[in-house]
Amino acid sequence: MQLQKPPYLLLLFLLSACLCSCNALRQTHSYDLLLTHANVVDVEQGQVLKNKTVVIDKGTIVEIADGGEAKKYRAATTLEAKGKYLIPGLWDNHVHLRGGEALEAENRNLLPLYIANGITTVRDAGGDLYPAVREWRRQIEAGKLAGPHIISAGPKLDGPKPTWAGSIEVATVAEVPAALDSLQKLGVDFVKIYDSTISGDVFQAIVKEAEARGMLTAGHMPFTAKLGEAIDNGLDITEHLYYAFKAGSPREDSITSVIRASAKTDKPVGFYTALHWLYDTYAPATAQQLFRKMAAHHTAVTPTLYISRVLNHLQQDDHSHDDYLAYIGDGIIKTYDGRINSAKRQSPEAVAFARNLNAKFQGMVPAMQAAGVTILAGSDAGAFNSYIYPGPSLHKELELLQEAGLTPAQSLRTATINGANVMGKADKYGTVATGKAADLVLLDKNPLEDIRNTQAIHAVIFDGKVYTSAELKQLLEWLKK
C-alpha cells in the first residue's frame, strides 16, 4: 500500500511544534556561562562576527547564536560583552620549564602569569622538570592550579655531554631508537632536538625515525645538517630562524662541507663564524625556494624575534625596574647572569652584527608568510633567558611580527589556530566555534585593527572558568614576591 504524504499544513504544524519545544528546552536548561552581545573574532577569515551570544557548558562552546537570542538561554553566569571582542585563548608556542629541582617551585609559580596574559596553552620546548610538568598539568586540568594547558617535549635529545641538564644523550645513529623509546614511555607530546653537540647524521636519523613512529619533531639543527634534508625526512617545526637563514644561502652546500670537515679537526668552524659567512651570501631568491618547500611539506617555523631583540640590547637596556621582575623568583633571576655577562663581553662590532642579523631575520618573516609557511608565535620565556617574562613576552612577539609586515589577522593566527593545527589539536582549540573548548579572551579593543590590542584584556575564560579583569589583577598581586 502506498503511504500518503502528510499535508503541507501538517508539516508546518510539526515544524512549529519542534521549534517551540527547542526554545522551551533552552529556557529550562541552565548552562554554565553565557556571553552576550560579543563581537566574535573569526581568526581564520580575519573578520568580526558582530553581536553574538556564546553559550558555554562544561568547558565547551555549545552554541553561538545572534545577540538578540540571549533571552532564550538561562545560565549560572552571564557576562555582558557588548563592545568587546572575543578571541580564542592565545598559545605561546615556545617556552621552557627548566632549572632543576632547585627551581621547581619558582617555575610552578610562573604558570598563572600565562593565564593573566590571556595565554591558555603553552608548548614547553624541552627541559629537566618533566615529572613536575606532568603533575602541574594534572592539577591544571583538575582546576587545582591556575595555569595554561601544557604541551611538552619532556627532555631534549642532544649529543654527548649536552649543554642543557636533563637532556638525553644520543651519540650515534644506532642509539636513536632507544632514545625515542624513552620519550614514548614518558608520554611526551613531541620530540625536541637540540644542537649543542649532536651530529648532523644523528639529527637527521632522529627526524626520520620519529616520522616513521608518528612523532612530531621540532628543534635546533647543527650546522653540519641541512634544513632541506630535514624537511624531506619529516621535520615538523624549525625553532628560530638561523637554520632557514643558512638554507637561504646559495653557498649552503659548500659552507656545510667546510663545517663538516672542520668538525674532525682541533679547530672546528664556530657557529658565529659560519653566521658571518651566511650573512654575506644570503639570497632572497634562494630563500624563496626553501620557503615554498617548507609550505609544501607543512614544516612550521617559530621565529622568536623578541628574545633576539632583548638579548641584543642587554648592553644598554636597564631592566632593574621592570614590573615583571616582581613575579620572577630569585633563583630564576640568578640564571639571567649568564647571558648578561656574555653581553658585557661582546665587542661593539659583534653587537652591531647581531642587530643587523636580526633585521634580516625580521625581513624573512613576511616572505615566509607570503610563501604559505606556517608561522608560530613563541616567546622562549623561561629560566636562563634574561628578561623574557612569561606572559607579556608573547604579546611583544606579536608586536614584532606585525612590525615585520604581517597583518594583525596573520599575527593573531600565529598565536591561535596555527599552533593548534601544527600540534594536531585544531578539533578542540584555536578558534571560537561550536564544539571547541571554552578557552577564550575577551578584549576591550579589536585585535584585527592592531595586534597590540591583544593586551587590552577584559576577561579570560579557561576551560569555561571566568577570570574577570579584577580577578586577574588580584591574581597578579598574589603572585608578587
Explain what the structure shows:
Helix 2 (104-116) runs antiparallel to helix 18 (469-479), helix 10 (284-297) packs across helix 14 (348-371) and helix 15 (392-404) packs across helix 16. This protein has one domain: TIM Barrel. The protein is built from 18 helices and 17 strands. The chain is α/β, with parallel strands linked by helices and 481 residues long. The N and C termini lie far apart (83 Å). The protein has helices at residues 8-28, 104-116, 130-141, 176-186, 200-213, 227-233, 242-247, 252-262, 271-281, 284-297, 305-311, 330-335, 337-345, 348-371, 392-404, 408-414, 417-422, 469-479; strands spanning 30-42, 47-57, 60-66, 74-80, 85-88, 90-95, 119-124, 149-152, 157-158, 168-169, 191-193, 217-219, 237-239, 300-302, 440-443, 457-462, 465-468. The radius of gyration is 25 Å and the shape is globular. Helix content is 42%, strand content 18%.
| CATH evolutionary superfamily | Metal-dependent hydrolases
Round the mean pLDDT to the nearest integer and report it: 94
Could you tell me the strand content as a percent range?
15-25%
Counting helices, strands and paired strands, the structural category is alpha/beta
Topology:
Layout: H1 8-28, E1 30-42, E2 47-57, E3 60-66, E4 74-80, E5 85-88, E6 90-95, H2 104-116, E7 119-124, H3 130-141, E8 149-152, E9 157-158, E10 168-169, H4 176-186, E11 191-193, H5 200-213, E12 217-219, H6 227-233, E13 237-239, H7 242-247, H8 252-262, H9 271-281, H10 284-297, E14 300-302, H11 305-311, H12 330-335, H13 337-345, H14 348-371, H15 392-404, H16 408-414, H17 417-422, E15 440-443, E16 457-462, E17 465-468, H18 469-479
Parallel strand pairs: 1-4, 1-5, 6-7, 7-8, 9-10, 11-12, 12-13, 13-14
Antiparallel strand pairs: 1-2, 2-3, 5-15, 15-16, 16-17
Helix pairs in contact: 2-18, 10-14, 15-16
